Amino acid sequence: MIGNAEVKKIVEGYDQKKLAIGTLGSHSSLNIFKGAKEEGFRTVCLCKEKDAIMYHKYPLVDDLIIVKDFTELLSEKMQERLRKLNVILIPHGSFTAYLRTEELTDSLMVPMFGNRQLLHWEANRKSQEEWLRQAGLRLPATFKTPEDIDRLVIAKLPGAKGGRGYFLAHSPKTFHKKFGELVKRGMLKEDDLSGIHLQEYALGVNVYPSYFSSILQDDVELLAMDRRYESAVDSIGKIPAAEQLEIDVNPTYTVVGNFPMVARESLLPELMSMGDNVHKKARELAPPGIIGPFCLETVITDELKIFTFEISARIVAGTNVGIGTSPYAYLKYGENMYMGRRIALEIKQATSQNRLLEVVA
Ligand SMILES: Nc1ncnc2c1ncn2[C@@H]1O[C@H](COP(=O)(O)OP(=O)(O)OP(=O)(O)O)[C@@H](O)[C@H]1O
Ligand SMILES: [Mg+2]
């Protein structure tokens, strides 16, 4: 694990008047770069050749570094180059998708905005659940073995991206039947069984509130909210039930995009307290807690019960719906505030208050 002392040494070697904001060219990079530019930073992007068009069409990047593969971020040479550019890295979903947690915590000697220690809490489903439960959030019930299933559950595979291979079952019998079918079709392996996580299916609508935990202001701000547009699950309702049965569809949850949303106002007090409590708990588990953006993945039922099934302790792509502004950012900041810019603002203020070391790890 890269410690504070090592990061301190690097940051002290930086020219703090020429800090640059850097990230991988995907996920929420345009959000991050636009925010960085609006706060007066240079920007650095590691990007694949095929994606470079984004940064030509939207010229938000000062140093475009073409890589074959995002793992090049880990090479000594690349890291040296980034340090020479005084880069603060902003982690997003592609960091955890393309690099292993240990690589991020142990081999990336470039200052990162955020709390590296929390990556471990987030990466493991069990520890993540412990964190959220201890923060007092309502989580869907979990089942130790398929034999315990007594209601509708969602069966989740470890490391499955976008819910691929997830399936629903409402009894031990339907579980084993579906599992067997998926094995037969080659989508699962027999020994996947022990790794499957069985979670109560919360019947309701998805709501993804995004927060910004400011170390400087000592506050957690509710800054954005979205819902996802998921293929194929959001399209299943378009075909009649008879055809659904005939083609035996299983919902998959590949995110195609996001919609901005506002929650009914009576839900806001609870959503706000949830954000505060998750940060408070994180402060005990891994001081100083969450630094910067995080998002709770929730389902809200018809009784207005909020179930949280996951946390991302970083910027999520759903905040892209707020580029420019969003109702929640507007309520606090007026026009022209959004997650990418909020990150840059915190770094700018930390630098001018000589507190940069408090927001990077
Ligand atoms: N307990 C639950 N009850 C109801 N729906 C759920 C539950 N857990 C997950 N889902 C649905 O399944 C989708 C994928 O689940 P989940 O977020 O756990 O997968 P993932 O692999 O983490 O995907 P991503 O990395 O894109 O977030 C969610 O967006 C949600 O629609
Ligand atoms: Mg998820």
Strand and helix layout:
Elements: H1 4-13, E1 20-24, H2 29-38, E2 42-48, H3 52-57, E3 63-67, H4 76-84, E4 87-89, H5 93-98, H6 101-106, H7 118-123, H8 125-134, E5 142-143, E6 153-156, E7 167-169, H9 172-184, E8 197-200, E9 205-214, E10 219-232, H10 241-247, E11 253-260, H11 268-285, E12 292-300, E13 306-312, H12 327-333, H13 339-352
Parallel strand pairs: 1-2, 1-4, 2-3
Antiparallel strand pairs: 5-8, 6-7, 6-8, 9-10, 9-12, 10-11, 12-13
Helix pairs in contact: 2-13
Bound molecules: adenosine-5'-triphosphate and magnesium ion (MG).
Residues 297, 310 line the site of magnesium ion.
How is this structure best described in words?
The protein is an alpha+beta fold. It has three domains: 4-122, Rossmann fold; 124-133 and 203-352, D-amino Acid Aminotransferase, Chain A, domain 1 (2-Layer Sandwich); 142-200, 2-Layer Sandwich (Dna Ligase, domain 1). It has helices spanning 4-13, 29-38, 52-57, 76-84, 93-98, 101-106, 118-123, 125-134, 172-184, 241-247, 268-285, 327-333, 339-352; strands spanning 20-24, 42-48, 63-67, 87-89, 142-143, 153-156, 167-169, 197-200, 205-214, 219-232, 253-260, 292-300, 306-312. Helix 2 crosses helix 13. The longest helix is centred in the C-terminal third of the chain and has 18 residues, at 268-285. The protein is globular and about 65 Å long. Bound molecules: adenosine-5'-triphosphate (ATP) and magnesium ion. Adenosine-5'-triphosphate is lined by residues 140, 154, 156, 160-163, 199, 201-202, 206, 228, 253, 255, 297, 299, 309-310.
